[in-house]
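Weekly modeling sync, notes
Attendees: AB, CL, MP (scribe)

Item 1: holo prediction request
CL wants a bound-state model with zinc ion before deciding which constructs to order. AB pointed out that an apo prediction alone won't tell us much about the pocket. Agreed to run with the ligand included and paste results into these notes for async review.

Input as submitted:
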Amino acid sequence: MFDYHVHSEFSVDCRVPMIESCRAAIASGVTEIAFTDHLDHEPADPGFGYYRPDAYFEAIARVRDEAGDRLTVLAGVEMDFNRKIAPEVEAFLGRHGHRYDLVIGSCHYQADGSLIFPEAFDGKSADDIFLPYFDQVQAAVETGWFDTIGHLDLPKRYAPASHRDYDPARYRDRLRPIFAAMIARGVAFEINTSGLRQTPKTSMPGPAVVRWYADAGGRLITIGTDSHAAQTVGAGIAKTLDMLELCGIDTVAAFTARRRRQVPIERLRRVAVRI
Ligand SMILES: [Zn+2]
Ligand SMILES: [Zn+2]
């Protein structure tokens, strides 16, 4: 199993040393882990200025030594993206992009600069939040800078009780051009399993969205737990493999040095059974 979205002490909102998550990964049958710490260029973000790439890569080298051949440790990053900060994102990737195995592009902000949090829904309809969010996601895909897109329908995770009737079918037409852009550019999206353990009780995105993507001809999917605690490393991944197969996806995307390969889900299961 691959867990391609794990945070460590290099994220402003996480205290877990990499080695602890590596131990948890090995214990839960994960064979590849990607540390994808937040990189925020939005000045209002609590993580602005927090990320230290050189220290991060030194820590990756240390845990690779410690994990040895028990676990493949990938260098990743979760880059926040919105149109306003695109020049800074591009500049960073120009300097450091080649050092990573995997770059996730994630949208966390509304176009007006406020975070997608429950308060963002005050006085607004679901469309007021989701449609501009998908515009940002589409812009992220079209840059071609990212290997995979994080939590495609994040607003459902933060929707307050008043807005919890999210139905992805409402946005099916809006997702079509996003899928077309992903397929044309070879950009994947992730199944973020944190939604399974949090309010929406479904992954981001969930099965219906995956099915529409597969029907459109898409096959590039990564899986990540978005863990900010060691005990959630690997959580929900086996279930996600089942879900992908039911939706007509039989491989997951894997990355080394930003190069993608497709790994059959069947092979991942054999490894999991052996452990
Ligand atoms: Zn995120
Ligand atoms: Zn994350």
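Recorded for review: The chain has a mean pLDDT of 95.
Action items: CL to compare against the apo run; MP to circulate these notes.
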